[in-house]
Amino acid sequence: MAPNAGTPLAIAHRGDPHGHRENTVPAVLAALDQGADLVEIDLALTRDGTAVLLHDETLTRLWGRALAVADTDITEIRAVRSGCGRYEIPEFDQVLRLLAGSGTGLMVDVRAPAAAEAAGEIVEKHGEFDRTVFAGDLGSLLAVRRRWRQARIALSWYVPQRPSPGLLEVLRPEFYNPHWPLLSRPVIDDMHERGLRVSTWTVDHPPTMAQLLGIGVDAVITNRLSRFLAVRAVHQAR
Questions:
Q1: For 216, which DSSP code?
Q2: Which of 35, 72, 105, 159 has its CA 20 to 30 Å from the CA of residue 166?
Q3: What is the reported pLDDT for 83?
Q4: Torsion angle of alpha carbons 13, 159, 3, 9, nearest 10°?
């Protein structure tokens, strides 16, 4: 039986990336309005050490600027606008404060230990460890665990081999968080036996959502939140 068994969590990938620019305040708010249990966001660190919401290493794809985040100061980041000024690159501190009192938490994807520690310091400052789950590369997650015993961690996973007992003992994740093709009922049952919940990414097609719910997944990260909520409702009605 799954630990903390209950309604599978709906996790909005980068907010609502189809209705709005991903990893922006309007995208996050839209995900809240649609009923997300958690909003997944990506964090990067500017040259002067500010954690901002951005998946890419540069501003090229989303913002049309050939600038590397790591080489850009926060003052330059704040000047970037798009969509007639509607969209800007938010700071993590801003988004964490925005969600305070909403009842919705964050899944924070970090891919560098420095960014992970900066994020952890902000979460600690606001007392939001209960509503924040850290995901991302292993080095970043280990950096979080070394500093904060209370941190909630989703062990992002990319290969068929399952994590070793030694790694699980050191990291103490709450979630096993692989790419969805790596999941099967035996894998999920094994993780449940180890005391972990299972989340998975990034699932956008209803038949796949239904399949994963049927084999016992505990959380789904999706770009299509409304689709998942509809599939989840049907699954729970059975």
A1: T
A2: 105
A3: 85
A4: 10
Q: Are 103 and 113 in contact (CB under 8 A)?
A: no
How many residues does the structure list for the chain?
238
Tokens, residue 74: 């926060």
100: number of Cβ within 10 Å = 10
Q: Which helix (H) or strand (E) holds 220?
A: strand 219-222
Confidence of residue 91 (pLDDT cuts 50, 70, 90): very high
For 229, which DSSP code?
A: H
Question: What does the pLDDT look like over 22-65, one tens digit per residue?
Answer: 999 999 999 999 999 999 999 999 999 999 999 999 999 999 99
Structure tokens at 109: 């994807």
Number of Cβ within a 10 Å radius of residue 187: 17
* Residues 139 and 167: beta-carbon distance below 8 Å: no
Please report, as a single letter, which amino acid is at residue 89: I
pTM for the model stands at 0.96
Give per-residue pLDDT as tens, 190-234.
999 999 999 999 999 999 999 999 999 999 999 999 999 999 999
Beta pairing class for 219-222 and 38-45: unpaired
Q: Which CATH number is 9-237's, of 3.40.190.10, 2.115.10.20, 3.20.20.190, 3.40.605.10?
A: 3.20.20.190
Helix H or strand E segment including 210 = helix 206-214
- pLDDT > 70 fraction of the chain, expressed in percent and rounded: 98
